[in-house]
């Protein structure tokens, strides 16, 4: 195989030498020779560009008129889909050599955006800012904009590619080639899966990109890119939350004003989830604390109390049902004396509160994190609060091991081992109130006349019917 490659290289070099010795002035013959492929898939111009032979490349192209030069530079791709310009774009001197021979703006544009079906424009493959300066020199702002909005086969623009794999300075250069009024549009363009450039940077943990972007964008643009949604309704801060990237969250929201932070964090995905709900659902305590601390005073309480997912649940309810006791603690301790309202007065779509959902989790820490904060007298009342079906906290505790396989199960249909676990969870919750008050609580029945002990043996349609759902994107 090595011998074959060596022979191919020798044949190519011989063709290059033969072409250099050819003094024919016939433009048509020269074009045919220039477009002739060598054994390795490159034309003569490809070879000179690849080896950075600038003067040889100039000698090849200068005898042609400008339109034909452009044809040679961009019209023929090698086996890897590269035109001469794709290769030249990797070397600032080679790029400068080519661009110096192209004076018409329409031809400069053609070089940067091949129209022959190439999947990647020239700019997307360039990460050297000095080379980009050469490529964009002489372009009007409109032409630069037209280059930057071109998409590849996965619907990505140059901004998506730069946010994914290139240093921040590449994106900075792009933004400086167009007016500030275009920044929002360019940054919020979506790729095939609905992601923006900022979302890609956050997904990859590119903190330098975030910090750099904030030095360039106006306050209006910052807010616009942070409140842009992908195809499932997610935003950049929701992605940071899902990735548990506290550094990215601080970088995104730290420089914003109080009102801007609230607006961004109040954004919801298509399931009604917020960035805080996502952190609560996944048990990311540090992320939850970070988000809570980015909100102040009344804004914090209103966010915790009023933002609901599609099941009507608050972040506290999500944390309670998902057994995230540390997140429960972080939320309750962040609102001073108003924690009781979050725990008892806020209700989901079936009128259940966070205590009901902590009970159904069956998790000792989640239940204890809420109930230990109440006095014995308060618990006697709180544990009797019912949802719209008349179910108390004990009924919810009896549903811990409800499974979809036993939907609509009537009394006696659940396996005995699951019944036993449900009843054990009921006893856990009852232990929080004095024995003198337990009997009356045990006797409470739901709207269908069932006690908690009866529900423990089956009879509820599904977890969705008691207001439990997902909030992640």
Q: Helical residue percent?
A: 55-70%
Structural class of the secondary elements? mainly alpha
Q: Identify the CATH architecture of the domain at 27-123.
A: Alpha Horseshoe
Average pLDDT, all residues: 86
Largest sheet: none
How many helices in DSSP terms? 32
Using the coordinates above, name the CATH class of the domain at 27-123: Mainly Alpha
CATH topology grouping of the domain at 27-123 = Serine Threonine Protein Phosphatase 5, Tetratricopeptide repeat
| Strand content bin | under 5%
Overall 3D geometry? elongated
- Write down how many β-strands occur, each being a DSSP E stretch of 2 or more residues: 0
Distance between the termini: 50 Å
Poorly predicted parts: 1-13, 403-411
**Quaternary structure classification:** single chain
Rg estimate, integer Å? 33 Å
């Amino acid at each position: 195989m090595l011998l074959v490659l060596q022979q191919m290289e020798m044949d190519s070099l011989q063709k290059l030498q033969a072409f250099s010795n050819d003094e024919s002035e016939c433009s048509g013959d020269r074009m045919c020779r220039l477009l002739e492929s060598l054994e390795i898939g490159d034309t003569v111009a490809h070879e000179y560009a690849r080896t950075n032979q600038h003067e040889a490349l100039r000698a090849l192209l200068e005898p042609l008129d400008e339109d034909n030069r452009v044809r040679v530079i961009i019209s023929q791709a090698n086996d890897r889909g590269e035109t001469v310009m794709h290769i030249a774009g990797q070397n600032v001197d080679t790029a400068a050599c080519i661009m110096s021979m192209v004076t018409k703006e329409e031809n400069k544009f053609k070089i940067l955006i091949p129209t022959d079906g190439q999947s990647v424009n020239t700019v997307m493959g360039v990460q050297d800012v000095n080379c980009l300066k050469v490529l964009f020199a002489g372009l009007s702002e409109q032409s630069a904009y037209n280059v930057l909005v071109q998409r590849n086969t996965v619907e990505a623009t140059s901004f998506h590619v730069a946010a994914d794999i290139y240093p921040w300075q590449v994106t900075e250069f792009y933004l400086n080639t167009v007016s500030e009024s275009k920044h929002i549009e360019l940054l919020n363009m979506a790729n095939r899966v609905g992601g923006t450039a900022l979302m890609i940077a956050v997904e990859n943990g590119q903190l330098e990109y975030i910090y750099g972007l904030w030095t360039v964008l106006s306050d209006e643009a910052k807010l616009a890119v942070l409140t842009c949604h992908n195809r499932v309704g997610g935003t950049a801060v929701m992605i940071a939350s899902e990735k548990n990237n506290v550094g990215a969250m601080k970088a995104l929201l730290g420089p914003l004003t109080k009102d801007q932070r609230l607006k961004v964090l109040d954004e919801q995905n298509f399931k009604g989830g917020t960035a805080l709900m996502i952190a609560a659902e996944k048990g990311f305590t540090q992320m939850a604390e970070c988000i809570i601390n980015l909100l102040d005073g009344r804004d914090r309480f209103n966010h915790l109390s009023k933002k609901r997912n599609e099941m009507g649940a608050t972040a506290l309810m999500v944390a309670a049902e998902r057994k995230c006791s540390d997140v429960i603690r972080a939320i309750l301790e962040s609102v001073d004396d108003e924690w009781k309202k979050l725990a008892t007065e806020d209700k989901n779509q079936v009128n259940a509160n966070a205590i009901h959902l902590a009970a159904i989790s069956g998790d000792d820490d989640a239940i204890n994190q809420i109930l230990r904060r109440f006095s014995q007298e308060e618990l006697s009342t709180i544990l009797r609060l019912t949802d719209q079906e008349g179910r108390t906290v004990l009924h919810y505790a009896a549903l811990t091991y409800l499974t979809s396989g036993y939907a609509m199960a009537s009394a006696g249909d659940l396996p005995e081992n699951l019944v036993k676990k449900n009843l054990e969870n009921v006893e856990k919750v009852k232990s929080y109130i004095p024995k003198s008050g337990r009997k009356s609580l045990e006797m409470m029945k739901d709207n269908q006349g069932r006690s908690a002990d009866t529900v423990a043996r089956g009879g509820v349609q599904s977890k969705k019917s008691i207001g439990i759902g997902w909030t992640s994107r």
